[in-house]
Amino acid sequence: MPKIKVKTLTRQIVELSEKLGLQAVPEYRTPDGTRIDVAILNGDEKILAIELEASFKWFPQRLLYDVVKAQRAGFPELWVVTSMPQKPGWIEGYAEEIGIKLKLIKEKEVLQLFSSLRYLM
Fold first, then answer.
1. Among residues 33, 74, 95, 101, which is most buried (max CB within 10 A)?
2. Domain total in the chain
3. How many CA atoms does the CB half-sphere of 38 hold within 13 Å?
4. Cβ neighbours of 14 (radius 10 Å)
5. pLDDT one-digit tens code per residue, 45-82
6. Domain-embedded: residue 1
7. 70 within some domain
8. What is the pTM of this model?
């Protein structure tokens, strides 16, 4: 199973954000002291949290943690990038209950989805 190229993908997201007039903040520190891999902001508005999950161990627990972090930090949407097919199960329903739009996506899909403003605005 191929590993996610975290540094490369982060750099590409930052560059594309600038072209779209948005700000991408790598290692965004949340008010409660956790970190989100990449936070997408439009001025003061929190648009999207992106977590790059290169590890497959404890994936359901990591996914739940990512959902909680995004919600507590005030993001309406969370993308979890993983190269392994995963089933979010009940965590997807929980994310919806707490107001988070959750997407599990492949590395190769991130930039294509990100390029479309309709997903961000």
1. 95
2. 1
3. 25
4. 16
5. 999 999 998 776 778 889 999 999 999 999 999 999 98
6. no
7. yes
8. 0.90
Residue 108 lies in a domain: yes
The domain spanning residue 76 has which CATH number?
A: 3.40.1350.10
CA distances from 41 to 10, 55, 71, 75, 88 (A): 15, 26, 15, 9, 26
Lookup result for tokens 């993983």: 82
Render the chain in DSSP notation, one character per residue: -PPP-HHHHHHHHHHHHHHTT-EEEEEEEPTTS-EEEEEEEETTEEEEEEEE----TTHHHHHHHHHHHHHHHT-SEEEEE-SS----THHHHHHHHTT-EEEEE-HHHHHHHHH-GGGT-
Q: Is residue 102 part of a domain?
A: yes
